[in-house]
């Protein structure tokens, strides 16, 4: 079981925020990461398209020998998780539920903001999951589609990102929320800017950490072996490598470009 890797996928670099937490918590596990950089962003795409892409991504990770799949993409988690659980015979973990539990634990006044892609917000997956836990909560959702492009372009410290953050988040602040779920795995990369916009009174909930708690229930952390990483993308590996090294604060070694729709080549 330990020789098989944990499989993680996202539409691009965003899932690396989840990868980073998993790597920290499980240094001995092998991990295979797939970023679907040829088809990013998933946020504006239809439900059926995202489900189709998610199944292809998961199948690829299965072919890499994954023993468990982490859907490190909120857009996929909100529309495709149930289908993935049905079609795959290995455990599949999404990012919505862990994030919701953490938000509910962090909000004192019961007013929670959710930011995510258009697809995630449209699906209402977060609002429904929060209200299922406690229907006295008030949930305010806001799609922030430009955030994904800003991250994919490596503009996490650019002045324009501050202006856009202000534009997106001011309406939420007017609702007196005291916690915001970063409902897209790209957003933790903008955490410093988002926190600056909303102020320190508002807790930012990053589901990446919550996901590791879920994994802990399935995997056992005791060993001294060191795990290795393999990264795959469907396009633009140089761009991925550059942004990944900033997010992970180290260079990535094994990075392979795989062609979608063809039989996957595993090095
Ligand atoms: N990082 C993804 C998410 O968590 C997808 C962003 C996108 O591709 O639009 O939703």
Tell me briefly what this model is.
This protein has 267 residues and is an alpha/beta fold. The chain is built from 11 helices and 10 strands. α1 (16-25) crosses α10 (207-218), α2 crosses α3 and α4 packs across α10.
CATH topology of the largest domain: Rossmann fold
Instruction: Provide the domain count.
Output: 2
Mean pLDDT: 92
**Which strand order does the major sheet show?**
4-3-1-2-9-10
Net shape:
globular
CATH class of the largest domain: Alpha Beta
Descriptors for this entry?
267 residues; alpha/beta; Rossmann fold; 2 domains; 6-stranded parallel β-sheet; 11 helices; 16% strand; globular; disordered C terminus; binds D-glutamic acid
Task: Explain the layout of strands and helices.
Elements: E1 6-10, H1 16-25, E2 31-35, H2 47-63, E3 68-71, H3 74-87, E4 92-93, H4 96-106, E5 111-116, H5 118-123, H6 125-133, E6 138-143, H7 146-152, H8 159-173, E7 179-183, H9 191-198, E8 203-205, H10 207-218, E9 229-233, H11 237-248, E10 255-257
Parallel strand pairs: 1-2, 1-3, 2-9, 3-4, 5-6, 5-7, 7-8, 9-10
Helix pairs in contact: 1-10, 2-3, 4-6, 4-10, 8-9
The structure holds D-glutamic acid.
Structure description:
The chain has two domains: 6-94 and 210-257, Rossmann fold, CATH 3.40.50.1860; 96-207, Rossmann fold (3-Layer(aba) Sandwich), CATH 3.40.50. Helix content is 45%, strand content 16%. The chain has eleven helices and ten strands. The strands form two sheets. Strands 4-3-1-2-9-10 form a six-stranded parallel sheet, sandwiched between helices. A four-stranded parallel sheet has the order 6-5-7-8, with helices on both faces. α3 links the parallel β3 and β4. The site of D-glutamic acid has 17 residues, from α3.
